[in-house]
Amino acid sequence: MTETESPPSSRYLIDREYAERRIAEFWDQRATGASRRILCGATLAFADLGYHGASTREIANRSGMSPAAVYIHFDSKQDLFHRIAIEGHRLSTGSFSEPARQGADPVTQLRLGIASFASFNAEWNLLSRSIEYEIRLHRGPEFADVWALRRGIDEHVLEILRAGVAEGSFRIADLDWAKITLLSTCIDVARWYRHGSSRTPLSIGFQYADLAMTLVGAQ
């Protein structure tokens, strides 16, 4: 640290320690051995530096391995990012759809889905940052499975909104705009949320569910 640099704040350190631990736990359930170490290091590198900023050498350094070792387990940086993106999106999209399916009516479905999705983006802030913003750079056929998951959550939200409008529970002039606003607002939680703050992921979920009700004009 140079004389002009300020030491990291205690809140930053708490957030970083917790978020990195969650990344390790995420990959503990999905990979083993050297592949797991590489996936952990790459997830952190993509979250901090973006896809283009995270070189293979940087990923290897964060994994405690050599650049050559990365290519033993993954064909390319794109292949590595795809693995992170597909596993992350399975968890991310499921965090909305699975709770939403438990609701008996559109209002309850939207409240449950948004509460869980906003909480997910707080709890898993580093994972979310590594996939949600960088995936827009990858629209080729090799990422079709990831985009299918993203379209699935879009369609699920629209289905709930249409049902709510049809039964008079929601007042929405533009369904597509409402869908984009709801999902993008929840995703943005990952950008600003810090673990160790006064707001917990659960409390954020409740607050965003209330916000969603206001946005759709819930009756």
Task: Please characterize this protein's 3D structure.
- The longest helix has 24 residues, at 77-100.
- The chain is built from 11 helices and no strands.
- The protein is mainly α.
- The radius of gyration is 19 Å and the shape is globular.
- The model is unreliable at 1-7 (pLDDT under 50).
List keywords for this structure.
single chain, 219 residues, mainly alpha, 0% strand, disordered N terminus
Write the topology of this structure.
Blueprint: H1 10-28, H2 33-53, H3 56-63, H4 67-73, H5 77-100, H6 106-123, H7 125-132, H8 144-166, H9 175-187, H10 189-192, H11 201-215
Helix pairs in contact: 1-2, 2-3, 2-5, 2-7, 3-4, 5-6, 5-7, 5-8, 6-8, 6-9, 6-11, 8-9
- Share of helix, binned: over 70%
Query: Which percent range describes the beta-strand content?
Result: under 5%
- State the order of secondary-structure elements, H for helix, E for strand: HHHHHHHHHHH
The total count of strands amounts to 0
Q: Could you tell me the radius of gyration in angstroms? A: 19 Å
Q: In terms of per-residue confidence, which ranges show pLDDT below 50 for 5 or more consecutive residues?
A: 1-7
Largest sheet: none
Number of helices: 11
Mean pLDDT: 92
User: Helices and strands: which structural class?
Assistant: mainly alpha
- The shape, in one word, is globular
Report how far the terminal alpha carbons are from each other: 55 Å
What oligomeric state best describes the polypeptide chains here?
Answer: single chain
